[in-house]
């Protein structure tokens, strides 16, 4: 359940909060240096893709003083539709875990998964599917710090590295900024005169 414009915090740091496909993979042996490097490379590419796509989508309304803003807005809408279609195709061909509420940052995560029985000290990898159109999930290795009586699991991550940590921090900041903007800006009624003609 979202807390409106309240700041979402975990381990005293800003956190990303959403309902997304989530999976926990138990780890019986530590990752090798090669495996750690592969996961770091994939996480870096995934977070860079999220950053690029979210920054592209910052245009929310046409600036009447800019001759190209309406065209940019139309292209942005078409790209969003295309990404949505790609996401649906990927889901159909590559089933995802059940979506659940998660709050996370580079330090750790809090989540609840049905039928997952974990104990403090258990080690594993949390896989977070940030976007439907991304083929791979964000993978973060950690240790269970606490399990509440109602089954909520709190994990402390092994530090993913400065670059990955900074990208996760930016991801959380952008999500918080959008939630604040959505709360402050009332939804305007649909005005067909501002949409212009449909173009191919």
N→C terminal distance: 40 Å
Kindly report the CATH topology: Thrombin, subunit H
Assigned CATH superfamily:
predicted glycosyltransferase like domains
Put simply, the count of helices is 3
H and E order: EEEHHEEEEEH
Number of strands: 8
Which whole number gives the mean pLDDT? 80
Query: Helix fraction?
Result: 25-40%
Query: Based on CA inertia axes, which overall geometry fits?
Result: globular
Low-confidence residue ranges: 58-62, 194-200
- Biggest β-sheet: strands ordered side by side in the sheet: 3-4-5-8-7-6
Beta-strand portion reads: 15-25%
Number of folding domains?
1
Proper CATH architecture: Beta Barrel
CATH class: Mainly Beta
Biggest sheet details: 6 strands, antiparallel, barrel
Radius of gyration (CA) equals 19 Å
Class from helix and strand fractions: alpha+beta
Structural commentary:
This protein has a six-stranded antiparallel β-barrel with strand order 3-4-5-8-7-6. It has a two-stranded antiparallel sheet with strand order 1-2. The protein is built from three helices and eight strands. The protein starts with 8 loop residues before the first strand and ends in a 16-residue tail after the last helix. It has 200 residues and is α+β, with helices and mostly antiparallel strands. A hairpin with a 3-residue loop joins strand 4 and strand 5. Helix content is 36%, strand content 23%. 16% of the residues are buried. The protein has one domain: Thrombin, subunit H. The radius of gyration is 19 Å and the shape is globular. The C terminus is likely disordered.
